[in-house]
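FW: tagging you since you asked about this chain on Friday. Here's the raw sequence from the shared folder, copied in full. Didn't touch anything.
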Amino acid sequence: MSRMKFHVKKGDEVEVISGNFKGSSGKILEVLSSKQRVLVEGVRIIKKHLRKSEDNPQGKIAEREGPIHISNVKLVEREKKAEKKAKTKPKKEAEKKAA
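HL: got it, structure written out here
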C-alpha cells in the first residue's frame, strides 16, 4: 500500500493560486488523497438542499466547502506544533571542544 506525498496537509494555511477562487486563502480542513483534492476553509462554498426530516422539520439549505484540486493551492504557513527541545551538551563538554 503506497501513500501519495503532497506539499500540504491538514491544518496548513494555504492560498489558492489558480481557478475561480484565485487569491482566496484559508486553512485546510481535509485532504482527499485518492482524488488529489483538498477542502479549504471558506473557499468554494456549496449550497446543498436538505429535505424535511426529524433534524430539519422545515428542510434546510446547508452551506459547506467544496473540494479544489491540490495543485491549485500554495502553502503559506504551516501550523506550528510543539517542537521538541534540542539536546544540549553540558557547558564543560562544550568548553573542552571549543578550546
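FW: The radius of gyration is 22 Å.
HL: agreed, and The longest helix spans residues 91-98.
FW: great, closing this out.
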